[in-house]
Write a structure and sequence with these properties.
By secondary structure, the chain is mostly helical. It has helices spanning 10-31, 35-60, 71-83.
Length: 84
């Protein structure tokens, strides 16, 4: 699992941080019986997911693993082998 670097990127950290803040807001609002603030906290949770996905789509998501060989890597290795 460590080779996949699951979640170790800016998009994941930002989405989780925003969602955590939303859960905290909703949790405090449940203690202070405030229904609108609970819904506001849950809206922040959803916003965290949307922002995380948008950042991932913008290229700040999971980077390719250095352990995965691509077609271009194989072609370059074949060219080097052929030249030798």
């Amino acid at each position: 699992m460590s080779a996949a670097a699951h979640g170790h990127n800016p998009a994941a950290w930002t989405g989780v941080t925003i969602s955590f803040v939303g859960f905290a807001i909703a949790g405090v609002a449940m203690i202070l019986p405030s229904v609108p603030v609970v819904w506001g906290g849950l809206a922040v949770v959803v916003l965290g997911g949307v922002i995380g996905k948008a950042m991932s789509m913008a290229g700040m998501g999971k980077q390719p693993s250095p352990h995965v060989e691509t077609v271009e890597d194989r072609a370059a290795a074949a060219a080097v082998a052929a030249a030798a």
